[in-house]
Write a structure and sequence with these properties.
The complex is a heterodimer of chains A (about 240) and B (about 90). Chain A has about 240 residues and is an alpha/beta fold. Chain A has 2 domains: about 90 residues, Translation factors (Elongation Factor Tu (Ef-tu), domain 3), CATH 2.40.30; about 120 residues, Nucleotide-binding domain of ferredoxin-NADP reductase (FNR) module (Rossmann fold). Chain A is built from 5 helices and 11 strands; from the N terminus they run E-E-E-E-E-H-E-E-H-E-H-E-H-E-H-E. In chain A, the strands form 2 sheets. In chain A, strands 4-3-6-1-2-5 form a 6-stranded antiparallel β-sheet. A 5-stranded parallel β-sheet of chain A has the order 9-8-7-10-11, sandwiched between helices. The relative contact order of chain A is 0.16. Chain B has one domain. The longest helix of chain B is centred in the N-terminal third of the chain and has 7 residues. Chain B has a 5-stranded antiparallel β-sheet, with helices on one face. Chain B has a 3-stranded antiparallel β-sheet with strand order 3-2-8, with no helix packed on it. Helix content of chain B is about 10%, strand content about 45%. The chains are: A alpha/beta (about 240), B mainly beta (about 90). At the A-B interface, strand 6 and strand 11 of A face strand 1 and helix 1 of B.
Amino acid sequence: MSSATRATDWRFATVAAIAPETPRAATLTLDVPGWRGHRAGQHLDVRLTADDGYRAQRSYSIASAPEDEKPQITVQELEDGEVSPWFVQVAREGDRFEVRGPFGGWFVWDAAQTEPLFLVAGGSGIVPLMSMLRHRRNQGSAVPVRLLLSVREPDDVFYARELETIGAEVVITYTRRPPAGWDGYARRVDRDMLQEVALLGGRAYVCGPTTFVESVADLLIELGQAPADIRTERFGGG
Amino acid sequence: MDHLDGNAAAGELSEVFTREATAARATCAGCGTSGPVAEAMVYEAGMGTVLRCPACEAVLLRLAHLGDEVVMEMRGVRVIRWRSGPG
Protein backbone atom coordinates (compact mmCIF):
# COMPACT_ATOMS: atom_id res chain seq x y z
CA MET A 1 0.00 0.00 0.00
CA SER A 2 1.22 3.51 -0.72
CA SER A 3 2.73 5.80 1.87
CA ALA A 4 -0.48 7.80 1.70
CA THR A 5 -2.27 5.30 3.95
CA ARG A 6 -4.25 7.19 6.54
CA ALA A 7 -5.16 5.92 10.00
CA THR A 8 -8.82 6.01 9.00
CA ASP A 9 -8.35 3.73 5.99
CA TRP A 10 -9.60 0.21 6.54
CA ARG A 11 -7.02 -2.31 5.35
CA PHE A 12 -6.43 -6.01 5.75
CA ALA A 13 -4.12 -7.05 8.56
CA THR A 14 -2.55 -10.50 8.49
CA VAL A 15 -1.98 -12.46 11.66
CA ALA A 16 1.83 -12.87 11.75
CA ALA A 17 1.89 -14.76 15.05
CA ILE A 18 -0.54 -15.80 17.71
CA ALA A 19 0.32 -16.81 21.25
CA PRO A 20 -1.90 -17.80 24.16
CA GLU A 21 -1.61 -15.23 26.95
CA THR A 22 -3.87 -16.97 29.47
CA PRO A 23 -6.40 -19.81 29.08
CA ARG A 24 -8.92 -17.25 27.81
CA ALA A 25 -6.78 -14.66 26.04
CA ALA A 26 -4.38 -14.52 23.13
CA THR A 27 -1.83 -12.04 21.84
CA LEU A 28 -1.86 -11.51 18.08
CA THR A 29 1.04 -9.95 16.21
CA LEU A 30 -0.22 -8.21 13.10
CA ASP A 31 1.18 -7.30 9.73
CA VAL A 32 -0.62 -4.10 8.84
CA PRO A 33 0.05 -2.53 5.42
CA GLY A 34 1.31 1.02 5.73
CA TRP A 35 1.81 0.76 9.51
CA ARG A 36 3.82 3.68 10.80
CA GLY A 37 3.84 3.04 14.51
CA HIS A 38 1.62 4.15 17.38
CA ARG A 39 1.68 6.04 20.66
CA ALA A 40 1.56 4.01 23.88
CA GLY A 41 -2.08 3.77 24.95
CA GLN A 42 -3.64 3.94 21.49
CA HIS A 43 -5.99 1.37 20.01
CA LEU A 44 -7.00 -0.17 16.70
CA ASP A 45 -10.48 -0.59 15.30
CA VAL A 46 -11.12 -4.10 14.04
CA ARG A 47 -13.88 -5.19 11.69
CA LEU A 48 -14.95 -8.74 10.99
CA THR A 49 -17.31 -9.50 8.13
CA ALA A 50 -19.30 -12.73 8.02
CA ASP A 51 -20.06 -14.61 4.80
CA ASP A 52 -23.55 -13.12 4.77
CA GLY A 53 -22.10 -9.61 4.95
CA TYR A 54 -22.88 -9.05 8.64
CA ARG A 55 -20.20 -6.84 10.17
CA ALA A 56 -19.03 -6.44 13.75
CA GLN A 57 -16.61 -3.73 14.79
CA ARG A 58 -14.58 -3.50 17.99
CA SER A 59 -11.70 -1.47 19.39
CA TYR A 60 -8.64 -3.26 20.78
CA SER A 61 -5.82 -1.57 22.64
CA ILE A 62 -2.31 -2.04 21.32
CA ALA A 63 -0.14 -4.01 23.74
CA SER A 64 3.22 -3.75 22.00
CA ALA A 65 5.65 -0.87 22.46
CA PRO A 66 5.78 2.01 19.99
CA GLU A 67 9.33 0.81 19.26
CA ASP A 68 8.11 -2.57 18.00
CA GLU A 69 7.87 -3.00 14.26
CA LYS A 70 4.53 -4.82 14.29
CA PRO A 71 1.56 -4.02 16.48
CA GLN A 72 0.23 -6.61 18.89
CA ILE A 73 -3.21 -6.80 20.43
CA THR A 74 -4.23 -9.01 23.33
CA VAL A 75 -7.82 -10.18 23.21
CA GLN A 76 -9.73 -11.56 26.17
CA GLU A 77 -12.43 -14.00 25.18
CA LEU A 78 -15.78 -12.85 26.48
CA GLU A 79 -18.62 -15.29 27.05
CA ASP A 80 -21.29 -14.67 24.43
CA GLY A 81 -18.89 -12.32 22.65
CA GLU A 82 -19.42 -11.92 18.92
CA VAL A 83 -15.86 -11.08 18.02
CA SER A 84 -13.44 -11.96 20.80
CA PRO A 85 -13.92 -15.78 20.64
CA TRP A 86 -12.80 -15.71 17.02
CA PHE A 87 -9.48 -14.09 17.95
CA VAL A 88 -8.83 -16.40 20.88
CA GLN A 89 -10.16 -19.75 19.65
CA VAL A 90 -10.31 -19.66 15.87
CA ALA A 91 -7.73 -17.28 14.39
CA ARG A 92 -4.51 -18.77 13.00
CA GLU A 93 -1.35 -17.37 11.48
CA GLY A 94 -2.06 -16.06 8.02
CA ASP A 95 -5.68 -15.18 8.73
CA ARG A 96 -6.75 -11.73 7.59
CA PHE A 97 -9.21 -9.20 8.92
CA GLU A 98 -9.79 -5.48 8.53
CA VAL A 99 -8.19 -2.92 10.80
CA ARG A 100 -7.79 0.84 10.90
CA GLY A 101 -5.83 3.07 13.23
CA PRO A 102 -4.01 3.75 15.41
CA PHE A 103 -6.39 6.08 17.21
CA GLY A 104 -6.46 8.09 20.41
CA GLY A 105 -4.66 11.20 21.61
CA TRP A 106 -5.83 11.43 25.22
CA PHE A 107 -5.22 8.05 26.78
CA VAL A 108 -1.56 8.06 25.68
CA TRP A 109 1.77 8.31 27.46
CA ASP A 110 5.08 9.41 26.05
CA ALA A 111 8.49 8.79 27.62
CA ALA A 112 9.21 12.52 27.38
CA GLN A 113 6.78 12.99 30.27
CA THR A 114 8.46 13.29 33.66
CA GLU A 115 5.67 12.99 36.24
CA PRO A 116 5.39 9.79 38.32
CA LEU A 117 3.05 7.26 36.76
CA PHE A 118 0.32 5.40 38.57
CA LEU A 119 -1.35 2.77 36.42
CA VAL A 120 -4.52 0.98 37.47
CA ALA A 121 -5.93 -1.90 35.46
CA GLY A 122 -9.04 -4.01 35.80
CA GLY A 123 -8.41 -7.36 34.06
CA SER A 124 -7.61 -6.87 30.39
CA GLY A 125 -7.43 -3.13 31.03
CA ILE A 126 -3.73 -3.80 31.44
CA VAL A 127 -3.24 -3.95 27.66
CA PRO A 128 -2.71 -0.24 26.85
CA LEU A 129 -0.83 0.20 30.13
CA MET A 130 1.55 -2.58 29.07
CA SER A 131 2.37 -0.58 25.96
CA MET A 132 3.24 2.35 28.25
CA LEU A 133 5.39 0.14 30.49
CA ARG A 134 7.22 -1.32 27.50
CA HIS A 135 7.74 2.15 26.05
CA ARG A 136 9.12 3.38 29.38
CA ARG A 137 11.51 0.43 29.57
CA ASN A 138 12.67 0.77 25.96
CA GLN A 139 13.33 4.48 26.36
CA GLY A 140 15.21 4.07 29.64
CA SER A 141 12.79 6.43 31.35
CA ALA A 142 13.49 6.84 35.07
CA VAL A 143 9.95 8.00 35.84
CA PRO A 144 8.71 6.23 38.99
CA VAL A 145 5.90 3.87 38.08
CA ARG A 146 3.55 1.66 39.97
CA LEU A 147 0.92 -0.69 38.52
CA LEU A 148 -2.11 -1.82 40.49
CA LEU A 149 -3.75 -4.76 38.75
CA SER A 150 -7.12 -6.13 39.77
CA VAL A 151 -7.95 -9.61 38.47
CA ARG A 152 -10.31 -12.35 39.50
CA GLU A 153 -7.74 -15.14 39.67
CA PRO A 154 -4.14 -15.94 38.73
CA ASP A 155 -5.13 -17.18 35.26
CA ASP A 156 -6.33 -13.68 34.43
CA VAL A 157 -2.92 -12.01 34.68
CA PHE A 158 -1.61 -11.05 31.24
CA TYR A 159 2.16 -10.73 30.66
CA ALA A 160 2.87 -12.26 34.09
CA ARG A 161 6.53 -13.12 33.44
CA GLU A 162 7.37 -9.89 31.65
CA LEU A 163 5.83 -7.86 34.48
CA GLU A 164 8.50 -9.27 36.80
CA THR A 165 11.23 -7.51 34.85
CA ILE A 166 9.42 -4.51 33.41
CA GLY A 167 10.94 -2.14 35.96
CA ALA A 168 7.67 -1.19 37.63
CA GLU A 169 6.41 -1.88 41.08
CA VAL A 170 3.51 -4.25 40.44
CA VAL A 171 0.75 -4.76 43.00
CA ILE A 172 -1.91 -7.37 42.26
CA THR A 173 -5.24 -7.85 43.97
CA TYR A 174 -7.24 -11.03 43.40
CA THR A 175 -10.96 -10.47 43.70
CA ARG A 176 -12.20 -14.05 43.46
CA ARG A 177 -9.52 -16.69 43.91
CA PRO A 178 -6.02 -15.74 45.04
CA PRO A 179 -3.14 -18.18 44.51
CA ALA A 180 -2.42 -20.63 47.33
CA GLY A 181 -0.53 -19.03 50.18
CA TRP A 182 -1.20 -15.49 48.90
CA ASP A 183 -0.79 -12.84 51.59
CA GLY A 184 -1.37 -9.81 49.39
CA TYR A 185 -4.59 -8.05 48.49
CA ALA A 186 -7.60 -10.27 47.85
CA ARG A 187 -10.50 -7.87 47.38
CA ARG A 188 -11.83 -5.27 44.98
CA VAL A 189 -9.90 -2.02 44.75
CA ASP A 190 -11.13 0.24 47.54
CA ARG A 191 -10.16 3.47 49.21
CA ASP A 192 -7.87 1.86 51.78
CA MET A 193 -6.01 -0.04 49.09
CA LEU A 194 -5.53 3.06 46.97
CA GLN A 195 -4.38 5.01 50.01
CA GLU A 196 -1.66 2.41 50.51
CA VAL A 197 -0.70 1.88 46.89
CA ALA A 198 -1.41 5.00 44.84
CA LEU A 199 1.33 7.26 43.57
CA LEU A 200 -0.51 10.56 43.90
CA GLY A 201 0.47 13.88 42.42
CA GLY A 202 1.72 12.55 39.09
CA ARG A 203 -0.24 11.18 36.18
CA ALA A 204 -2.74 8.36 36.73
CA TYR A 205 -4.06 6.11 33.97
CA VAL A 206 -7.03 3.87 34.73
CA CYS A 207 -8.33 1.26 32.29
CA GLY A 208 -10.94 -1.43 32.73
CA PRO A 209 -14.68 -2.05 32.70
CA THR A 210 -16.80 1.08 33.09
CA THR A 211 -17.85 0.54 36.71
CA PHE A 212 -14.26 -0.27 37.74
CA VAL A 213 -12.85 2.83 36.06
CA GLU A 214 -15.43 5.17 37.53
CA SER A 215 -15.03 3.80 41.03
CA VAL A 216 -11.22 4.04 40.92
CA ALA A 217 -11.26 7.54 39.41
CA ASP A 218 -13.70 8.79 42.07
CA LEU A 219 -11.58 7.31 44.86
CA LEU A 220 -8.40 8.86 43.46
CA ILE A 221 -10.09 12.26 43.43
CA GLU A 222 -11.21 11.72 47.05
CA LEU A 223 -7.59 10.99 47.94
CA GLY A 224 -6.48 14.26 46.41
CA GLN A 225 -5.44 13.39 42.88
CA ALA A 226 -6.28 16.27 40.51
CA PRO A 227 -9.05 15.21 38.11
CA ALA A 228 -7.05 16.67 35.21
CA ASP A 229 -4.25 14.22 36.02
CA ILE A 230 -6.45 11.14 35.81
CA ARG A 231 -6.84 9.66 32.35
CA THR A 232 -9.39 6.93 31.94
CA GLU A 233 -10.41 4.39 29.33
CA ARG A 234 -13.48 2.21 29.64
CA PHE A 235 -14.00 -0.94 27.65
CA GLY A 236 -17.04 -2.99 27.01
CA GLY A 237 -18.12 -6.33 25.71
CA GLY A 238 -17.77 -8.23 22.55
CA MET B 1 -26.48 -0.86 27.82
CA ASP B 2 -23.26 0.08 29.55
CA HIS B 3 -21.59 3.13 28.15
CA LEU B 4 -18.00 3.39 27.03
CA ASP B 5 -16.10 6.66 26.74
CA GLY B 6 -14.88 8.98 24.04
CA ASN B 7 -11.72 6.93 23.49
CA ALA B 8 -13.88 4.26 21.84
CA ALA B 9 -15.15 6.81 19.32
CA ALA B 10 -11.67 7.98 18.30
CA GLY B 11 -11.78 6.11 15.00
CA GLU B 12 -15.23 7.36 14.07
CA LEU B 13 -14.32 10.94 14.98
CA SER B 14 -11.07 10.69 13.00
CA GLU B 15 -13.17 10.14 9.90
CA VAL B 16 -14.58 13.65 10.16
CA PHE B 17 -12.02 15.71 12.11
CA THR B 18 -8.53 16.39 10.81
CA ARG B 19 -7.18 16.95 14.29
CA GLU B 20 -7.24 14.17 16.86
CA ALA B 21 -10.59 14.65 18.59
CA THR B 22 -10.40 12.72 21.87
CA ALA B 23 -7.78 15.08 23.35
CA ALA B 24 -9.84 18.13 22.32
CA ARG B 25 -11.94 19.81 24.99
CA ALA B 26 -15.65 20.18 24.38
CA THR B 27 -18.02 22.48 26.23
CA CYS B 28 -21.54 21.15 26.76
CA ALA B 29 -24.17 23.52 25.38
CA GLY B 30 -26.57 22.31 28.07
CA CYS B 31 -24.69 22.67 31.34
CA GLY B 32 -21.48 24.43 30.33
CA THR B 33 -19.15 21.69 31.59
CA SER B 34 -15.87 21.46 29.66
CA GLY B 35 -13.69 18.40 29.39
CA PRO B 36 -11.77 16.18 27.03
CA VAL B 37 -13.88 14.39 24.44
CA ALA B 38 -12.24 11.17 25.70
CA GLU B 39 -14.20 11.58 28.93
CA ALA B 40 -17.61 11.85 27.27
CA MET B 41 -19.99 8.94 27.69
CA VAL B 42 -20.29 6.98 24.48
CA TYR B 43 -23.16 4.78 23.43
CA GLU B 44 -22.73 2.68 20.30
CA ALA B 45 -26.13 1.92 18.82
CA GLY B 46 -27.32 0.52 15.52
CA MET B 47 -27.79 4.05 14.26
CA GLY B 48 -24.25 5.11 15.05
CA THR B 49 -22.34 6.71 17.86
CA VAL B 50 -23.78 9.04 20.49
CA LEU B 51 -21.61 11.10 22.85
CA ARG B 52 -23.14 12.43 26.04
CA CYS B 53 -21.93 14.96 28.59
CA PRO B 54 -20.47 13.12 31.62
CA ALA B 55 -21.89 15.80 33.93
CA CYS B 56 -25.50 16.26 32.73
CA GLU B 57 -25.88 13.38 30.24
CA ALA B 58 -27.19 15.68 27.52
CA VAL B 59 -26.38 14.58 23.98
CA LEU B 60 -23.22 16.31 22.78
CA LEU B 61 -22.86 14.77 19.38
CA ARG B 62 -24.36 12.11 17.14
CA LEU B 63 -22.45 10.49 14.32
CA ALA B 64 -24.02 8.00 11.95
CA HIS B 65 -23.39 6.30 8.63
CA LEU B 66 -26.61 6.59 6.66
CA GLY B 67 -26.49 5.14 3.18
CA ASP B 68 -23.56 6.75 1.42
CA GLU B 69 -23.33 9.65 3.88
CA VAL B 70 -21.62 10.29 7.19
CA VAL B 71 -23.95 12.48 9.21
CA MET B 72 -22.89 14.43 12.29
CA GLU B 73 -25.12 16.50 14.51
CA MET B 74 -23.39 18.41 17.29
CA ARG B 75 -25.66 21.15 18.52
CA GLY B 76 -25.02 19.87 22.07
CA VAL B 77 -21.45 21.16 21.84
CA ARG B 78 -21.04 24.88 22.35
CA VAL B 79 -17.29 25.04 21.74
CA ILE B 80 -14.57 22.56 20.91
CA ARG B 81 -10.93 23.43 21.51
CA TRP B 82 -7.77 21.80 20.22
CA ARG B 83 -4.22 22.50 21.23
CA SER B 84 -2.47 24.04 18.29
CA GLY B 85 0.48 22.22 16.79
CA PRO B 86 0.73 18.75 15.31
CA GLY B 87 -1.88 16.14 16.14
